[in-house]
Task: structure prediction
Amino acid sequence: MAFSITHQIGALAGTPISVTEPNKSSGESTASVTASAVRKSPAAGLTCKIQNPEGKETGMLTPPMSPCRSPVLGATRPDLSVACQAYATEVEAAPVLEHELRGHVEKINGVPVFVMMPLDSVTMNHTVNRKKAMNASLQALKSAGVEGIMMDVWWGLVERDAPGAYNWGGYNELLEMAKKHGLKVQAVMSFHQCGGNVGDSCTIPLPNWVVEEVNNDPDLAYTDQWGKRNYEYLSLGVDTLPVLKGRTPVQCYADFMRAFRDNFKHLLGDTIVIGPTVLLEVQVGMGPAGELRYPSYPEGDGTWSFPGIGAFQCFDKYMLSSLKAYCESEGKPEWGSTGPTDAGHYNNWPEDTPFFRKEGGGWNSTYGEFFLGWYSQMLLDHGERILSSAKAIYENEGVKISVKVAGIHWHYGTRSHAPELTAGYYNTRFRDGYLPIAQMFARHGAIFNFTCIEMHDHEQPQDAQCSPEGLVRQVALATQKAGVPLAGENALPRYDDYAHEQILQASALNIKGNTEGKQMCAFTYLRMNPQLFQADNWRRFVSFVKKMKEGKNTHKCREEVEREAEHFVHVTTPLVQEAAVALMH
Result:
């Protein structure tokens, strides 16, 4: 999670007419004929002829060159609207065939783009939320060349009522919808609660029986030095303790992942895949917002606001017990009674605190190095335990595993990097905190998923010494050194070309030492919502997806890619209108 400027425009309303064609390759599986134009065409000679990948006839009608829109005026031609309606009605009668992904993989020279689904895609009643909108949206995404979708699989929904009682209702249907439209799926094992983070649009608590245990023993929750609890994710201090009805949290996470594998075994290597190869990606949640970190900057209840330094989260009795045991084993028992108490408050800045200030700060003292080493190692050990379980469960299934790391870019230009330290990333001006994380991922063959890819330094408050660009470069170098694939996400919704261009640049991995021309293995776009389907936003998004798929080594010029993208914008207009209207209702 990271913070920047957002650009949100009102959603589009209109009457859609959709046309569906089966068995197209990625980016051409769905076509539509528009009855209302959304923008002027950039070139008068632009046409909208659709062909299958081999140029062969499919035995079905193919859309004619767009008769409904004047390329010169960029407006609806009323005299042809009836023809469009009639054509759409005729073709709609054709069945929508499921895409056969196994055995056929489209070659992607660049970076495949996935789109994150709404947080509430599955309801509390275990059904697909806004089913009509979801269907239209998935069809539009596929037709735009999107590789697949990312969806949260909520622990608090699936195993809500009783330990070991898994209800996959809603997810079964959603995965089948994705398969029908030829979309691949990145499934996030979301072991945190939904609600309280930036962008959270709904509330999904932890399972009822877990909440019951936390109520009985509040120290199961992360705790700061003032005794404030954070209930978003269980404290890693209890990872190996049987505090959940006789099971440890890590056992519960492993059982959940195993149940997911068993229930969707028929889709492994088929629908739930990543990138150009037929492999499954399961992103394993390891903390708040699904990220490997401590909940050091909780915004939802007003405790923290950007760009505060956050606070250490090691004051529950289980974390303090671990600290005490570690200090005694290292011959420093006097340091084992508590964590730092001079590190300021959530909304302080580094120079406000004795611990984080640049001159003589405790972070750079013998004690500071000792504590930060323990605090960050506890987080690494937490990741190691869960990744070991995930690898054992999925390694024989042709499954890729990924973990998300937060893009904490504020105060990055200071010596102490205080917000990263409180989150558990021991990264300072004198120490690389991301290489140990990447090396841990490498031991388990996991993908390093990183946020804030869309951000420019100059967009951020300069007095807070923010540097998302510098942070992304550092992480890219760390993953390169560790030999770990890097995937990206935008931290906040952005619909403008400026952010898209930044993503294109970052995903190209133009860094020192990248002699093999490697790129990010995937990019996940935040998020599917009505704003994405607004006319101008959609036009820019389709162009962005096309450029990402072409990659940095493409022989095509940008103008050619833009023209091809414009074609898909044109034919998906009705689907986009339908998705926008349905999502708003």
About this structure: The longest strand covers residues 148-154. The two ends are 28 Å apart (CA to CA). The longest helix spans residues 366-394.
